From TrEMBL:
SUPFAM superfamilies: Concanavalin A-like lectins/glucanases. It comes from Lentzea atacamensis. Pfam families: Laminin_G_3. InterPro entries: ConA-like_dom_sf. It comes from the Bacteria. GO terms for molecular function: carbohydrate binding. This is Concanavalin A-like lectin/glucanase superfamily protein. Residues 1-20 form the signal peptide. Keywords: Lectin, Signal.
Length: 312
């Protein structure tokens, strides 16, 4: 049997080093809370029209890239180290159809891999967004070509009784008191009252056309509070609903979401099952995270700084 030459192993080790793993996109202090993570650089094995979930192993939830498939991954990373993002868009603005580019997952019986958001005391959503076209989009369900949707859907977790629109937690813009505002929307109990944190500023001031912006929404269902952030900073605003719409005052404690698995995730509008078009988003998304607790303001800022500094 031929023997290896002396020192060959050392030479091989020097000329072909093991590939180091790239640093995580997630700030270590919040990593344990990340349930679902989509970077739009991981097509599902054998199905490039789906994006794999690189979050928690026991909660793996691939999402469908609806209507555009693999072409929705575009070479435009939102931050250092990111190569691609997800393009969302309205395909036929003046036609009632089901061809908008959006993404997500939907199951009328609930998505079992999203059980972390059943009976949850809190949750958070974080993502990068770039507006790339007409916003808000034209209302393709209207016969009037000059009618526009009253909202733009970015990303949300559906409620346990959702038809593909109603959300347990959502980042969006919405027409509020005659002006479009940036909003974080939460619903604690399925079919019950919603609460909104509404920005004081016009949404286009917070999200200029063609600029990547880091959005975050935190939802503390036990304490009845919502946080909304842009580029790691709290957004000045107010609650839209007076009183106690989540019904958290008084026993029993703690206050949690309904004991039902969400019916899915919606990204870039509503109805990820593709049976209707609503609130389309002419935009790109990158680095989308769903977490199983309400992050603090310091943690949101830390995630933003971690990513923009190239993941130290």
């Amino acid at each position: 049997m031929r023997k290896a030459l002396p020192g060959l192993c050392l030479v091989l080790a020097l000329t072909a080093p093991a590939q180091a793993q790239p640093p995580s996109e997630v700030f270590p202090g919040i990593a344990a809370a990340v349930v679902h993570h989509y970077d739009f650089e991981h097509p599902l094995a054998g199905d490039p029209e789906k994006e794999d979930d690189i979050g928690r192993a026991d909660s793996r939830t691939p999402i469908s890239l609806v209507n555009g498939g693999a072409a929705m991954r575009v070479a435009d990373g939102a931050f250092p180290g990111s190569k691609t993002s997800l393009q969302l868009k309205q395909v036929r603005p003046n036609s009632k159809s089901n061809d908008d580019w959006k993404a997500g997952v939907h199951s009328s019986s609930g998505v079992a891999s999203m059980k972390a958001f059943s009976k949850a005391r809190g949750m958070s959503i974080m993502t990068w967004v770039k507006i790339t076209g007409e916003a808000p989009a034209r209302n393709s369900n209207s016969s009037g070509t000059g009618d526009f949707y009253g909202a733009i859907g970015f990303a949300g977790v559906l409620s346990g009784d959702s038809d593909g629109h109603a959300a347990r937690a959502l980042l969006e813009t919405e027409n509020h008191n005659g002006a479009m505002r940036l909003i974080a929307l939460g619903r604690r109990v399925d079919g019950s009252g919603k609460q909104f944190w509404v920005s004081n500023a016009d949404w286009k001031t917070l999200m200029p056309q063609g600029k990547w912006v880091f959005l975050a929404g935190t939802f503390d269902f036990d304490n009845g509070t919502i946080g909304l952030y842009v580029d790691g900073k709290p957004v000045e605003g107010s609650y839209a609903v007076k009183g106690d719409p989540w019904k958290v005052i008084g026993p029993p404690e703690p206050d949690t979401t309904s004991a039902a698995n969400p019916r899915g995730i919606k990204i870039g509008g509503s109805h990820p099952q593709n049976n209707r078009e609503v609130n389309a988003c002419n935009c790109r998304l990158d680095g989308l995270l769903f977490l199983d607790r309400a992050l603090t303001a310091d943690e949101v800022r830390a995630q933003y700084e971690w990513v923009i500094k190239g993941r130290r």
